[in-house]
Amino acid sequence: METIQVVLTAKLRRAADVAARRQGISRSALVRNALVEYLERQHVRDLEEQERLAYLAMPDDDEELRDWEAIPLGQKTEQYP
Q1: CA separation for the pair 74, 33 (Å, rounded)
Q2: 65 phi and psi angles, rounded to 5 deg
Q3: Is 59 helix (H, G, I), strand (E, B) or coil?
Q4: pTM for the model
């Protein structure tokens, strides 16, 4: 692991100390865990945004949509047996 320096307000440091004590972990572990959770959530948001943009980039094809809507859920097709 590497050591870094993070500047916190006194109020935030006290809140972090209380939270770390409640969880029985060090302040450093609390900050590490919080950063990991933040980065994981950000990754999911990035993937969701990529997916949203991909859907926006795809033109609507009403004929294809009607074809898919005509197939009852769970029914196999020639393309997807």
Answers
A1: 42
A2: -60, -45
A3: coil
A4: 0.65
| In contact, 27 and 20? CB cutoff 8 Å | yes
Instruction: Give the tens place of pLDDT for each residue, 22-81.
Output: 999 999 999 999 999 999 999 999 999 998 888 777 766 777 777 767 777 666 666 655
Q: Which two tokens stand for residue 80?
A: 């997807």
DSSP character string of 12-57: HHHHHHHHHHHHT--HHHHHHHHHHHHHHHHHHHHHHHHHHHHHHH
Q: What whole-number distance in Å separates Cα of residue 74 and Cα of residue 15?
A: 52
19 contacts 31 by C-beta, under 8 angstroms = no
Report which residue type is found at 28: S
